[in-house]
Amino acid sequence: FSANNNVLCLNLGQDERCHGFVHVNPARALGARIEPVSSYGGNQYGVHLLIHKDRETGHWWLEYGDDLKPVGYWPESLFTGLKNPASLLNWGGHVLSPSSEKSPPMGSGHFPHEGFGKAAFVREVLIVDKGRHLVLPILENLDPMSSNYDCYRVDTLMYNGDGITFYYGGPGGCKG
Prior knowledge:
Residues 1-175 form the Neprosin PEP catalytic domain. This protein is mainly beta.
């Protein structure tokens, strides 16, 4: 999140400029490597995440793992525009590098057309509706996009039995 539209806050330190995410579960370390790690052409592993708004407090909670235990929350006060239901949701990857350097790889570093076992993926995408139920997003309302198609791509979105799946990523290597 952005503390003041100038500072990008990643919740990984005690930076006084980045008061925000309230970490409530020391068993779930922020910024730690999530294991086991998938390998190119080898075993693939996933992580269950759920982000939802608490109706009573207005806080946005992050839950993690097969048991969806709370990690922490973003206080309602951080989000002036999220007092009402969200009108836009994003899933995928994000990379960052100084403008003087080439961009890093995203995901596995391979383009999504390589598919399962080789490209990064997001699967079982569901959204929470106004009735607090997990539902499938409407496929026609989803808009796959990449800020730099030469370096990063997103593959076709598809329904599977448990939600929407897509592959994304790329080798990076772009400047500025």
